[in-house]
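Reading is simple: each integer encodes one residue's backbone shape. An example follows:

___
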Amino acid sequence: ILVITVYMYLVVIHNKHKSDSNHPLLWELASHLFPWVISLITAIIPLTRVDNIHYFTAGGWCWISEQPRYARFVLFFYFIWLIMFLVFLLYAIMIYDLNSQRLQSRHSTIVATVLTEKESILKRNLILYPLVFWILWIPASVNRVLEALGH
């Protein structure tokens, strides 16, 4: 979801700044490297058994042992929460930018009408990705937090 969000951000925000060609390239490179590097790190740590963190049939779609308790959060849920935050931030910037474009184009009624229709469709479609992501991961996150607290 983060890679999709970064690409939408590049299209919505950086499409206007075509003269700055290196900046979108850096975003694109980072959006490819971030998931691979984080996945590699979180996959290797249990193999090294650092601080007794190891792979285990833990149930409930979890593959990290219950002890130490922080391992599941550090190796998985912190990244989910970071992605949730980054997705929210990038979508907020995109929606703010689209609203600013609409306000700037109000001087032309025809342009404003076309932009408003396209904008409302785009905003509706934009919000679906993070909404589904949050709906799917918030219950799992709450479950793990409650489990860690002993409930």
